[in-house]
Amino acid sequence: MSAAEAITTGVQELRMTELTDRRLRQLARELGQEWKSLATLLGYKKAKIFQIENDNPCQTQEQIFSMLVEWRQQNPSSPDQIESLSNQLREVGREDLADELLGNFQREDARKQQGFAETMFCGRHKSQKDVYCKTCQELICKTCSLSNNHESHQYFTVEEASERYKQVLKDQLPVFNTDLAKIDQALMFISQAEQTFSSQLTQATGVVQNRAVRAVEEVIAEGNRVIDELKQREKDYQQTLNEKRKTLTELRRRKSHTVAVAEYVMQEESSSDFLVRYTDIRKQFEKLGSERPPKSDVKLVYPLFLRSQNIGPVNLGEVVMEDTWELCHKFGKQGQGEGEFESARGIAAAAEPDEIAVADWKNERVVICDKQGQIRGFISVISHDVKAMLDGWVVASSPDVKVYKRDRTLAYEFRTIDSEAGKTTIHVVSFVLLNNGNIIAGDIARKVLTEHQPGKKGKLIRTIPVSLRPNHLAVLSNGWIVISDLEQGLAGIVDVSDGKAAEVATIQPTIDGKPGKRCGGVCSNSSGIYLVVSTGYVNSSHIHHYNCAGQFVSCVAQGLYNPQGITFTVDGQQLAVADRHSVKIYHKV
After folding, report:
1. With CB atoms 3.0 to 4.6 Å apart as the test, which of 61, 344, 465, 585 could cross-link to 578 if both were Cys?
2. By the 8 A CB rule, do 503 and 467 touch?
3. Residues ≥6 apart with Cβ < 8 Å to 164
4. CA–CA separation, 575 vs 572, rounded Å?
5. From residue 290, how far is each of 171, 172, 177, 190, 431 by CA, in Å?
6. What is the mean pLDDT of residues 332-344?
7. DSSP letter string over 544-558?
8. Largest CA distance in the chain
9. Which DSSP category does 310 fall into?
10. Is the N-terminal amide bond of 79 cis, ω within 30° of 0?
């Protein structure tokens, strides 16, 4: 048999044996709900499809595999068998699987058959190439090995070279097979996440619809708003999963094809045939070897539907997404030097430039730094809390509130009391900046909030008594104030729009089912309230996420030392926490 005839025979044998159980199982893993449409195109009746499903309940992959095996048995092995299955895969929209099944062998046949004879014979010396030059990595004839072009090179017989390089590929195959297993696991997790999300979505939508049916027109409108938000959540989440699936599926297709070609060449072809193809295969292994499967970072999340507590004229409830944060950066240690903190109590973030200010109470200073901890300057002042204004910083320095310019020089300062100044104990340790620019300060000695107008150097506008000690404050987007009482371990939401503190909700945090002993720093964004909760022991503090009605959503961080201040960075993507002797930066995962 000539070399060209051998190649032709090898390709035909490949076609006759390519639909192995392994190949069919690969197809079964990658096919989804479209498998029933494929079965219909392959000639299966509805009754037969129903029987296959009953034979393998709750095991979709086994259903698909059984269908494909039975179809293979009913259709004798031939090139037409592969072509027929590929055509039907295209009909159901799985061109990727059709291309993978064909594996580019059809396009290579003509070139392989036409050029094999020239490849295996030396055109220069008209003799068989039966020596492999290791130095040049090519087949040559014996006469070529004696020429100047190959002088002093290292040679192998084709049999020796074939065995050596088969072992090279064999050593690399486990890595690729491990990668394929990881890809399959990641794809399976995506499918599970998709199913769980869909189930939770259906449940949440049902709750909203049931409540809306029994409501008046404005409640129905509110229900539609929540449903639209759920659909948007689904759309966003589905887009994320689809992008990850697309990336993993494409990487799997290319690696799987490379493995299939390598296995065929190693097992089915002669030594000479193997060496002809080895260089191309080696290049593919080198190229794909660096493309490792990404770590499966798909988090199983789903929308949570929180019932209304009758806040506002019409409110069916709120849709929130459970979120998780992880520590991405930490800087600082205990001490009095640069880059050290004795009692980091308050923290603030400013946009221009991108800076963080830390109220280091015991060291009697405010530390200005960037998000990596690089020091940019200090403000020498006893500081309980600090906030960023557009053009400077505001510091709670009991009994005063001090306003500094961006260059850290004092602009002005004011007290939170007028007529009784000097007669009443004042202890201002917290404050917030309202959307209109006014400052609301928290006085724990008098248990009051005071509102001030910075444009008139802190002119007192009003004093509002509150039931909780305002150790820490935050303001919600609707103007409500969140008060964190350190000693009572409570947080409250109050409406101060009419000059009085109307209680909206009370938050009583728990840790492991037990009430928290202390409530520390608090901040907020559009998703709700983030509150520091502690058992009273060091290294036991949590950060809890509540919605704007005070309902618990999730625990986003644990094991903090003894945090007080907490704030979002300007871009809203990170949480900065003043944790007594250090600053910890968290980001969402």
Report:
1. 344
2. yes
3. 156
4. 8
5. 16, 12, 14, 24, 53
6. 93
7. EEE-TTS-EEEEEEE
8. 114
9. S
10. no
Asked if residue 467 has pLDDT above 70, the reply is yes
CB 517 within 8 A of CB 532: no
Report whether the peptide linkage leading into residue 563 is cis, meaning its omega lies within 30 degrees of zero: no
CA-to-CA distance for 408 and 486, rounded, in angstroms?
Answer: 30
Q: Given CATH 2.60.40.290, say whether it is the number of domain 3-108.
A: no
Residue carrying structure tokens 């499918």 = 191
**In this structure, what is the dihedral angle of CA atoms 261, 263, 268, 270, given to the nearest 10 degrees?**
90
> How far apart are alpha carbons 53 and 63 in whole angstroms?
6
Mean pLDDT over 343-364 rounds to 87
Structure tokens at 5: 């005839």
Token pair recorded at residue 107? 């396009």
Centroid of chain to Cα 52: 38
The predicted structure's pLDDT at residue 461: 93
> What is the side-by-side strand order in the sheet with 490-495?
472-475, 481-485, 490-495, 502-507
Q: What does DSSP say about strands 472-475 and 481-485: parallel, antiparallel, or unpaired?
A: antiparallel
Length of the chain: 589
Contact between residue 356 and residue 585 where contact means Cβ atoms under 8 Å apart: no
Chain centroid to CA 193? 13
| Residue ranges of domains in the chain | 3-108, 154-319, 323-588
Q: Is 123 helix (H, G, I), strand (E, B) or coil?
A: coil
d(CA 325, CA 127) in angstroms, rounded, equals: 69
> Tokens 């109590």 correspond to what residue?
345
Model confidence over 173-227: pLDDT tens digits? 888 888 888 888 888 888 888 888 888 888 888 888 877 777 667 767 767 777 7
Which residues touch 242 (CB under 8 Å, ≥6 apart)?
none
User: Each residue of 399-423: pLDDT tens digit?
Assistant: 899 999 988 999 999 988 865 555 6
Core vs surface per residue 527-552: b (16+ CB within 10 A) or e: bbbbbbbbbeeeebbbbbbbbbbbbb
Distance between CA atoms of residues 566 and 519, nearest Å: 12
C-alpha torsion sign, points 423, 428, 434, 437 = positive
- Tokens representing residue 410 in the block: 């004092």
What CATH number does the domain located at 323-588 have? 2.120.10.30
- Residue 95 in tokens: 């061109």
The SS3 call for residue 516 is: coil
Three-state SS across 259-295?
Answer: HHHHHHHHHHCCHHHHHHHHHHHHHHHHHHHCCCCCC
Lowest mean pLDDT among 127-131, 386-390, 401-405, 499-503: 127-131
C-alpha neighbours within 13 Å on the C-beta side of residue 509: 34
